[in-house]
Amino acid sequence: MKNPENQVLVIFGASGDLTYRKLIPSIYDLYIQDLLPERFAILGVSRTNFSDENFREKIGEGIKTFANYKNGDVTALHEFLSKLYYFSINTEDYNEYIKLDLRINELNKELETGGNCIYYLSTPPSLYPVIPQALGNAGMSRNSKTNWKRLIVEKPFGYDIESAKELNKKLLKYFDENQIYRIDHYLGKETVQNVFVTRFANGIFEPLWNRNYIHHVEITGVENIGVENRGGYYDSSGALRDMLQNHLLQITSLIAMEPPSSFDPDSIRNETIKVFQSLRPLKEEDINKSVIRGQYLSSTIKGEKVPGYREEKGVNPLSKTETYVALKLFIDNWRWGGVPFYIRTGKRLPTRVTEVVIHFKPTPHYLFARKSLQDGCNQLVIRIQPDEGILLKFGMKVPGSGFNVQNVNMDFHYSDLMDQYLPSAYERLLYDCMLGDSTLYQRGDAAEAAWTFVTPILEAWKNNSNIPVHGYPAGTWGPENADDIIEEKQFTWRYPCKNLVNDGLYCEL
Fold it and tell me: Would residue 247 show up in a list of annotated catalytic residues for this protein?
């Protein structure tokens, strides 16, 4: 691993929670591993009035709490914090950016960072078009012959297809596409990246990775928490926008993509966009049977009363915003024709887990007794979080007379590699951007293609009041009819939890 070029990282919204908990603690972890430029600075920008020292003191507490190397050397922490600076401006006042440009130039001259600059938008989405325009008007956005500029944009990238197109149009007026890094922290997770290796480095998997051998694919990203203190934001977003449109569709593209011609950003992202373009459009008459939305209700979990979604702070008491979505989709291409992909996400479920399950087709003839069709299918489970790893489930003979078959697990955990450091998602993605590697960042056309698929669902929910929102008790696996979208009745979702939360829940280890 190499060190990036000298540069200044400018974080807009630096007084916020993301900077405090994720961004700068991740950069500190890179610093401890000697993976930062020889000369660098971090300039926090926000409306809040901080001095450099106040900012360093606050961020130091965040590092001590959230960094992987939070118990590191005190001297190293002090040296790192000396690289942090702060500048207070009204980010919506274009005249303020002239002052910001002067401050960045001062740092470049003082620290000899060469004029290279990353702008990170850790701000409300309403500022995503505002700040790039201000940077452009101030002459701060374009690459020159001697230095480069890059822009990192947090999710959500748009609210629907029209807003995503409009945002892309505005960004591209001031930055070139190769300067824009649309971040999805899920793609920074080690196990998501390991999908590439699992598929393309193993001769036993790639020949089977198609409609001839795979019965269906299941992708789950669920949480056991509610909306916490984000009720106001979440009520205008919902599970489809918050999780499925970005994180889970991105994972889908990695699972379904064709092998790239080479392992470089353009080749990989050319293949993922093909997946989005191949998604079978959902017609309004299909949405009611291919998409299930739900909303968690009040419940008692382990003796504790848990409020329903409509009782959460900031949520409309009559809200129809979904906290659960289950979706069936098809990818209409040669590799995946006819193979259903089942995707679900939700809040207040029994556990927190993100995983992909490849369900292989059963043998064509059953020699041995089996409990169900699902028991006769081998499964490859790619666990993204928590307990990252890979699980292969296959049948083995039970010792004794007869030929009783039982499913057994061949299980790998990343935690077993005790001598290997597991970087955080933001750590990996920030490092890649510093190097100019956009492999794990979303391209503008892919963002629009994902919204093109999702927007008809949003419009159907908005315009058709007859489409139900199914209630489900907090702590359960979602609406009772969630299995209805799975085509064969002998199949159900996989329930990956280790402890039963409510009586009657079926959980699979």
Answer: yes
